[in-house]
TrEMBL record, chains A, B:
Keywords: Flavoprotein. Gene3D superfamilies: Electron Transport, Fmn-binding Protein, Chain A. PANTHER family: FLAVOREDOXIN, FLAVOREDOXIN-RELATED-RELATED. This is Flavin reductase like domain-containing protein. Belongs to the flavoredoxin family. Residues 15-162 form the Flavin reductase like domain. Its cofactor is FMN. The keyword Flavoprotein applies. InterPro entries: Flavin_Rdtase-like_dom (IPR002563), Flavoredoxin (IPR052174), Split_barrel_FMN-bd (IPR012349). GO terms for molecular function: FMN binding; oxidoreductase activity, acting on the CH-NH group of donors, NAD or NADP as acceptor.
Length: 190, 190
């Protein structure tokens, strides 16, 4: 179904987020799927891999995540610029057709009852580590990564290949108000 | 002393980190200054601005930060690639000459008893919001941003200008093992 989807060793899953991309957060609960954009997502630990994500209490995604205890963090691409902006600016609370209008197509993976977004470069399936104080005081959620995958056209052998892949695969880095930067040139410190 | 250093409105301070750069963390306590690199730093709130940063318990920076309750998060540039790699790979515990060897030059700002790193593109002075459980369980530290500045050659009017500034000003985004990407092309979602 997805010939380029390749598993990523959990010990290297942090590399999918280490360069600070804006992400998509997807959730499923009680028959409802949703996807939102989030710039405030960050690796937290290597092994087992953990991450943080900030989810405003007004979001439907947060309600679903608190209901199911599971979510997907995925890395959208330059080709998904409009999709990313749309799912970040519209709420499922206001528009039940949000995902279709933004052009989101979902797919399933075995053993994970979660909605994965087609066309992303990487996916991290997470289980919520409940920290009620962080969630209430800071809107801060901690997830343990229990599965990781990438599109082998842009990430393989534990490394991103932005410098050789089609530029449409580059990650998005939101600043504010729909202004993004794509990731750029590769550099190696001596 | 620093003719291009311009204050950043605290309401827009999150924009200095929103695109996910690798940062430098600097601290001062009991007469000791230190600087380390950290890829796991993320905005947490808009007003008052807050951020998170992950600091391994083996680091001298963490000891100093826990001592003083204050730190600076700053955004290094492509011109500081070697410096960033060096302060990330060497500990003051092993080498008292670490900062000099890495080429770090520090400067002071009025009313902030903190060491600021010359040549960065942005600086956020932070006060620790003590959260002992997060610090012990996750190495996760929360700071409230109490002052923000940027070099007006690359950030002004509340916006980054990577697309028009000299490429040496671009932010660094670490993946692993000294492999970085610079931030790249500007994109605007319609």
């Amino acid at each position: 179904m997805h010939p380029h989807l390749a598993p990523v060793d959990l010990a290297k899953a942090y590399r999918l987020l280490n360069h600070g991309p804006t992400v998509l957060v997807s959730t499923r609960h009680a028959g409802v799927d949703n996807v939102m954009a989030a710039a405030w997502c960050c690796a937290l630990d290597f092994a087992p891999p953990k991450l943080t994500v900030v989810l405003d209490e007004a979001t439907r995604t947060r309600e679903l995540l608190e209901g199911s205890g599971r979510f997907v963090i995925q890395v959208p691409t330059v080709a998904q610029l409009r999709l990313t902006e749309q799912v970040g600016n519209h709420s499922l609370k206001d528009d039940p057709d949000k995902l279709a209008k933004a052009g989101v197509e979902l797919f399933d993976l075995p053993d994970h009852d979660l909605p994965f977004v087609q066309g992303c470069s990487a996916w991290l399936a997470c289980e919520l580590i409940a920290e009620p104080h962080n969630q209430a005081a800071y809107d801060l959620f901690i997830g343990q990564v229990v599965g990781a995958w990438a599109d082998d056209r842009v990430f393989s052998d534990g490394r991103w290949h932005f410098e050789t892949a089609d530029p449409a695969w580059r990650s998005l880095h939101h600043v504010a108000g729909g202004h993004f930067y794509a990731i750029g040139e590769a550099l190696k410190a001596e």
